[in-house]
Amino acid sequence: MKVRWAIAGALLLGSAGAAVAAVQVYAPTRSHHAWTSIETGRYLARAGDCESCHTAPGGKPYAGGRPVPTPFGIVYSTNITPDPDTGIGAWSEDDFYRAMHFGIDRRGERLYPAFPYPWFTHMTRGDVDAIKAYLDDVTPVRQVNRAPELGWPFSMRSMLAAWDKLYLDAKQFQPDPQRSAAWNRGAYLVEGAGHCGACHSAKNMLGHADTSHPMQGGMAEHVFAPNLGSGERDGLSGWTREDIIEYLATGSNRYATAAGPMAEVVQASTQNLTQRDLEAMATYLKSLEGPKPATPHAPGADIMRTGAALYVDDCAGCHMNDGAGLANAFPPLRASSAIQAAKPDLLIAVILHGARSPSTSAKPTGLTMPAFSDKLDDAEVAALTTYIRNAWGNRGSDVSEGEVARLRSTLASAPR
Amino acid sequence: MAKKLPEVDVVLVGFGWTASVIAQELTEAGANVLALERGGWRDTVPDFSVTHIQDELRYAVRKQIFEETRRSTLTFRNRPDQLALPMRQLGSFLPAAGVGGAGVHWNGQNWRFLPSDFLLRTHNEQRYGKKAIPDGMTIQDWGITYEQLEPYYDKWEYLCGISGKAGNIGGAIQPGGNPFEGPRRREYPLPPLKRSAATVLFDKAAREVGLHPFPAPAANTSRPYLNPLGVQMGQCTFCGYCEWFGCANYSKASPQTTILPVLLKKDNFSFRTHASVVRVLTDSDGKRATGVVYVDQDGNEYVQPAQMVVLCAFAHHNVHLLLVSKIGTPYDPETGSGVVGRNYAYQLSSDVNVTCRERLNPFMGAGALGQVVDDFNGDNFDHGGKGFLGGGYIALWNTGGRPILQEYLPKGTPKWGGGWKKALHEDYLYSTHMQCHGGVMSYRNNYLDLDPTYTDHYGNPLLRLTFDFHANEHAMSKFLTDRATDIAQAIPNRGINPKPRKGHYSIVPYQTTHNTGGAAMGTDPRTSFVNPFLQSWDVPNLWVMGSSVFPQNPGYNPTGTVGALAFWAADAMKRYIRNPRPLVQT
């Protein structure tokens, strides 16, 4: 009831009145923006998961400073609180739109595409303005941005002009009149604010995502983000729209539990989206083509035997001998697209470092798998992952000891 | 100089089972709640991780998961005319330190007490006459009935996902369950655990001798379980590492696996670890608690003001805190007056080891995997002419078959060397044991007070425990051990080794962590420290949880009743918060 009064106050009295009326329920709004713009922006900022990247571990929300590893070095996220000196408080709506649409900051400098403007460029001006309205309303924090740590020649921002010229297709999303409204809304969210392809699409040497074959799997920081297109083994062919919605809304479904960077995405972003928007995203994802199915050869009997023994010792208690997992508690490994992905990195990373499932309002528990990096050596992890990728009807490429060693060393030196 | 912190609505001393229940309930009601825990933060991962926690040497032998006696202990003697000495190593009982408390390392043996247990004095006087209760036995009614507590038992069991088989639903006896239990409103949330070979043998033998075996109610999940708070549990793998270990796969109920994922998200809840509460503060006339004093890891002292103080620590520590804070009248065994420290009780357990003819694979176990007979518990049988009151259950627990401490080898097996190895090799897979788990009555000379000589880490006098078993308990225990031997003889065996517990209570060998009393509940302020809602008679904004409030110790493990009483008290606290007052007028 109180909430409703506050909203009524906002609508009747305008923003000044809203500040007074809302004081019992919300902190008063700081900015001149209408409450509805701020709330629209809050929703879109969550859809874009802005806070995750723009908040350092243990830091103040949106004050930046989180290290974002790229193949070219580390970029630190920036302060996007309304602090006028160190944040974006002095930016106009035009300034902000230029950053989101063209990847150019207020001073005219080009931004590194670790900031996913190649996706945000698809967003409408109205939506971008709403995000700015919301950001104007968050608590301002004085925190100076940290310079990126990139090797030459990537340290030269002038390079970025050429990159943008080559790769940036700065244009707003154009609805496809042949498709349903739901499909178009889904495409807008997935290809725009959601910037799913920043991880799930293949990228070339210069970090440009393959936009003609979107969501067929790509690198997300250090691990492989699986194919979201079709595919009997490594794609979402087996998932219904409802499966996709449940996964995004709660963090898990009958096939998979979000792990690694995706756990954070579900927790901070997708669980907050409306059922309608999740349905739209599922509609769009179900329309995507997957990569051509690969047919890896069957691994040798020796490695499968070693892997099976390790599996019984270390995994079967939760994931069960038949790889079926335990409904609602521990994810299945059998018939899982993430397990049979083109690259085994995610599976290796989860075995080495463990994984915490997202703690969402629908599924708050946050069940966690422990790390096995201290217990299993590279050869053992290779045998175990090879086994899991090829047991119970699964089929995936074998995993070599070297592959595990490389990922172990990358993950050990990665910023947390 | 102690630093004064901002006031909270409710401060909880300790952050184990009862604190978690109270915090969850009162934060739902809108209160701002803070828990102060002397130990550290612990969670399933990384602290109890699978393939890491199953380390018997580290946790069971070296006791890394329990409180350290060099920081907190008590002194002990059997009789008031003896000199009490400090317990320098843990033995008889194993209190926890750390978030989750002993709820992390319990077995999960989860019971309801019998309806007659709550009316112990009245019931026994009515059935056997006033003379049946010997001089010096200070048993009393609880001030609450089974029927009043039943809804809260139910709430607790559904929180924890108890696996079991009901024996009495609304008065109708259910085949396969415990026919002696009080009526319950519905079935257990989960079916019983799968039986082990040993429990199947016990079941058959117990039936043969005319008893009524049933699967023990277990806080080990027989299926994945989603509790009413929305917290998801896994399914027990029978790894056999429950007691003295944390559960690796979310299948043993603990605060971490049932409440904390929801509680810790709340803005109106917070907790501090390594915060040892050393005093409850009261106002000048001692009628109102104003908060607590705690000490952090670096020795800094803080005053934490609060509108309500709830003692949720281990039974001993609650009583110790009351005594050092000079709240309530300390018990005086000479005159029998005073209540703080009065009616301390424990458990009297004995064993019967059996070497079976059938191979048992005892290592496949779970903390509360067991088959039980309740025919000789409480007043489930006629005590006429038996020479004792009370009783206990006889169970074949298949908690595990750990390599160091869980071998039940035949009588006469050497403790080490070639003979021991030979027996282990030949008999380990065939060996099991039964436990007789007897209640202990309360007595005038069994009590807690402050030690005149020894002080703790913070300079407070240590708690002093004066306790011994009495003739009633020895007679009860002998009777139970004989009945267990009858069952053992009905199992095809290669040898039976009854191990009755004789003589004085010793604090050295492990028995159970079922220490009770010292701040009893009841309807008379002259014989109880808290009223039937667990609210202090003297200081109405001070509440005491846990088995400290048991007026004597029935023949069951305490946790089920501790949990139910916490929910019961939480409901009373909600009424109190709306209108602060003594909920029972004297």
CATH class of chain B: Alpha Beta
**Can you identify the CATH class of the largest domain in chain A?**
Mainly Alpha
Low-confidence runs of at least 5 consecutive residues of chain B: none
Given the structure, what is the number of helices of chain B? 12
**CATH architecture term of the largest domain in chain A:** Orthogonal Bundle
Counted up, domains of chain A total 3
Structural class of chain B: alpha/beta
Poorly predicted regions of chain A are 1-26
How many strand units of chain A? 7
Content of β-strand of chain A: under 5%
Q: What is the domain tally of chain B?
A: 1
Range of helix content of chain A: 40-55%
* Multimerization state: heterodimer
What is the 3D shape of chain B?
Answer: globular
Radius of gyration of CA atoms of chain B, rounded to a whole number: 23 Å
- Biggest sheet details of chain B: 8 strands, mixed
- The helix/strand order of chain A is HHHEEHHHEHHHEEHHHHHHEEHH
Overall description:
The complex is a heterodimer of chains A (416) and B (586). Chain A is 40% helix and 5% strand. By secondary structure, chain A is mostly helical. Chain A has three domains: 25-142, Cytochrome Bc1 Complex, Chain D, domain 2 (Orthogonal Bundle); 181-286; 301-358 and 367-413, Cytochrome c-like domain (Cytochrome Bc1 Complex, Chain D, domain 2, Orthogonal Bundle). In chain A, the strands form three sheets. Chain A has a three-stranded antiparallel sheet with strand order 1-2-3, with no helix packed on it. The two termini of chain A are 42 Å apart. Chain B has one domain: FAD/NAD(P)-binding domain (3-Layer(bba) Sandwich). In chain B, strands 1, 2, 3, 11, 12, 13, 14 and 22 form an eight-stranded mixed sheet that branches. In chain B, strands 8-16-17-18-15-21 form a six-stranded antiparallel sheet, with helices on one face. In chain B, strands 5-4-20-19 form a four-stranded mixed sheet, covered by helices on one side. Chain B is globular and about 70 Å long. The A-B interface holds A 313-314, 317-318, 326-330, 354, 356, 359, 362-372, 375 and B 43-46, 49-52, 224, 226, 230-235, 237, 239, 248-250, 261-262, 265.
